[in-house]
């Protein structure tokens, strides 16, 4: 039975719930936690009962700990890694905490390389001070403005033709599944050697047909962070296309295909400063359990 004692949705309290959740996951014991009467729980975009999935296989977690909170809505998020016996995987957790302090929402995205055809080489899970920094109070942006800048990134990515619908900070970088995919000439794709904005100005991501099911459940105003979820659909029909610099390239994806993603945007000086993303392949045009009321 959930206590009716009011819960203080302050950052430290929300972080404490996340810490308790992670301890319970590693112990494989959901009984350690306080649950709301009607809990919504998903792992890799599939609704699961509490105690199923990662609850039965986790054996530890890594040191990486990028956490954030929305004190207005009682949401807390975490990018970290989990260990399932012999494999360490990038993972994103999101918890919704109700006014009594009970957990009412659990959304988990685990990037299990054993299940993925697209494996990013040599992931490195390192602290990013820019993500952890608090924005001076006088420089903080409204929730609405933060959301507009983040959504503009998805607008730019969708059917990318070189147009920019957001602002990029000169020092912007993006990390995906633990690997930096901007300003990284050693990555397997040549586009990764360019900065954020230059990649999009080339129109490289033309094969992305839809960025649908966008959700923004957590906005950390004090740190200028926006957490987003969504799907990138690839119809697979595009074969060849021309970049804005005149170069002819071949599409990387020639079949119906969808990514499910969890993404965190750091917004600084009104521009995208750092992007952290985890994503996995799911069935083409898969719907989300979170779309229902």
Question: How are the elements arranged and paired?
Answer:
Blueprint: H1 11-27, E1 35-43, E2 46-47, E3 60-61, E4 66-70, E5 75-84, E6 87-97, E7 103-111, H2 129-132, H3 143-157, E8 168-176, E9 179-180, H4 196-202, E10 210-220, E11 225-234, E12 240-242, E13 248-250, E14 257-268, E15 271-282
Parallel strand pairs: 1-7, 8-15
Antiparallel strand pairs: 1-2, 3-5, 4-5, 5-6, 6-7, 8-9, 10-11, 11-14, 12-13, 14-15
CATH topology group of the largest domain: Nuclear Transport Factor 2, Chain: A
Annotation, overall tally of beta strands: 15
CATH architecture tag of the largest domain:
Roll
- The low-confidence parts are 1-5
CATH C-level name of the largest domain = Alpha Beta
Number of helices: 4
SSE series? HEEEEEEEHHEEHEEEEEE
User: Percent range for helical residues?
Assistant: 10-25%
Mean pLDDT: 95
User: C-alpha Rg, in Å?
Assistant: 19 Å
- When the domains are counted, the total is 2
Termini separation comes to 24 Å
Structural class: mainly beta
Largest sheet: 7 strands, mixed
Based on Cα principal axes, name the global outline.
globular
In percent terms, what proportion of residues is strand?
Answer: 35-45%
Give structural notes:
With 293 residues, the chain is mainly β. The chain is 15% helix and 38% strand. It contains four helices and 15 strands. A hairpin with a 2-residue loop joins β8 and β9.
Quick tags:
seven-stranded mixed beta sheet; globular; Nuclear Transport Factor 2, Chain: A; 2 domains; 293 residues; 4 helices; mainly beta; six-stranded mixed beta sheet
